[in-house]
Amino acid sequence: MFLSMPSISIIRLIKRKVKMLLLKPTLACNMKCSYCYEKEWRMKNHPDLDYDLPVLIESVKNSLDNRIVIHGGEPLLIPKDDLEAMLSTIHRKTGKTGIQTNGTLIDEDHLRLFMQYNTSVGLSIDGDGDLNAYRSGIDETARLLDLMKEMRARHINVGVIIVISQANANDNDKLERLKGFVTRLTSMRIHGRINPCLLNSGCSLTTDRLSGVYSDLTRWMILNGIRGWSPFHEMWEHTVYNNPLSCVFKECDVEYTPSARVLLKDGTETNCMRVSAKGIKDRDPSKQGVRSKQLTSLPQDQGGCMGCQYWERCYGGCPAESEDGKRTEFCDGIKAIYKILDNTRQFTSSGNRPNQPPPNERGRQSMI
Ligand code: SF4
Ligand code: SF4
């Protein structure tokens, strides 16, 4: 008997149910990126490599999550044998693996493991040369780009997180260079996320500049057919197919992050580290939906989302992007992108054409 291919709508339904488990054997890191959201926590707590491997492996085996990513800190600080034990367990369970790394420690042995265990490698890089200045120097950045080329030559899936900051977008010259960088990555079949730098990091753009940059990037991607980059891609999916792909456009709360579950080094389960950056909090499922109720009953000029036309495609954004638990600081940028996407959708839809009567009217005329 042949099983028929699942329809697009079923695939989308399955995607909606994707839950992610982030396995964090260590929160230690070998870098000191200026805007890191775990930096404050790390400075206070001095994380080590003293993780409980059997407990983590057992947790992975028992997990119901369909996406399991090894995360950190910097996960490649752990010995290669332990890394292989985690990768092989995840691979047996899901047929694929994922890791988010700064890339500085990747060597030939790691590349072999990534090929063996079908690993999607997420790297963090904000552009080439000085565009990446908040993360590393020019030589290290060039080495990372060579490594990305090598990984693609070996058919390893590579994704990137680019953080928009003063270093890569505070003037139009830098923004054009950043677009060139994104174009080059796209031609190598490397895609990823273009995230805003948190406002309290000291590295961020002003909210006005940030909205302008995101509007510019949205138009540029549409005009040039650049696909596969979030948040643009996922906001388009949300707009056209009502298919929320990313946690930042689903309900999320500082007390409970339903889309992302973290396993710490001793097997303790906690929330996404983006909300735990200042102090790790227990997960509290009873808080699900509480933030949404508060935001929808708070007027927008008081930091809420009351009456916002984009609510069901935003839910107030990521709760970590707000100092006071209200809506995301990037509200203006989100509105700017959705406005362009809505207009684009309207333009490309098969609705009425200008200077023509509506379809029903045309149909009636042809019958006369
Ligand atoms: S805190 Fe933000 S990044 Fe983390 S799961 Fe929630 S929306 Fe996603
Ligand atoms: S766009 Fe702004 S006001 Fe609207 S739901 Fe999102 S955060 Fe709230």
Question: Into which percentage range does the β-strand content fall?
Answer: 5-15%
Number-wise, the strands total 9
What spatial form do the alpha-carbon principal axes imply? globular
Strand order in the largest sheet: 7-6-5-4-3-2-1-8-9
CATH superfamily of the domain at 2-249: Aldolase class I
Mean pLDDT: 88
Ligand catalogue: iron/sulfur cluster
- Compressed to H and E, one letter per element, the order equals HEHHEHEHEHEHHEHEHEEHHH
* CATH topology value of the domain at 2-249: TIM Barrel
CATH architecture of the domain at 2-249: Alpha-Beta Barrel
Helix content: 40-55%
Q: Report, as a whole number of angstroms, the end-to-end distance.
A: 53 Å
How many H/I helical runs? 13
Q: Class by helix and strand content? A: alpha/beta
Instruction: Identify the CATH class of the domain at 2-249.
Output: Alpha Beta
The biggest beta sheet reads:
9 strands, mixed
Contiguous uncertain segments of 5+ residues: 1-16, 361-368
